[in-house]
Design a protein that fits this description.
Shape: elongated
Largest sheet: 3 strands, parallel
Number of helices: 6
Strand order of the largest sheet: 2-1-3
Number of domains: 2
Number of strands: 3
Radius of gyration: 19 Å
Order of helices and strands: HHEHEHEHH
Amino acid sequence: MKKMTVIALLLFLVVSMTACAPDTPVDGDSTSESAADEKIKLVFSVNAVPGDAHHYAMMKFEEVVEAKSNGLIEVETHHSGSLFKQDQELAAVKSGQVDFVYLSAPWLTEGSPWISMFTAGYMFRSYEHMTNVLNG
């Protein structure tokens, strides 16, 4: 089940990245051709240590994106909080210093309080129970 979740997440991210790829160059347009040859560099940071599931997923993401883009997209990976500490990651994404991070839902609630419902997953007996509690 975990493996399928990781694969689904990676597939979603690869499809998202494909949608953001530069347009195909127009014939005879030298500026488009040179732009298409430029590598895109993405920075991915996690606080997870090597061997952790999040680290494994980050490395798989790097492998798949670079393979599917034929090397056009390069993913620079940083683990163990070597680039940003957990409390700095959200600000780093907002400022454009990093492209991808793994964040737990509690960190995301600072900017989007509605996400807090996902942080209490084991607090409710069922979807109906959660809806009744959260909606009154």
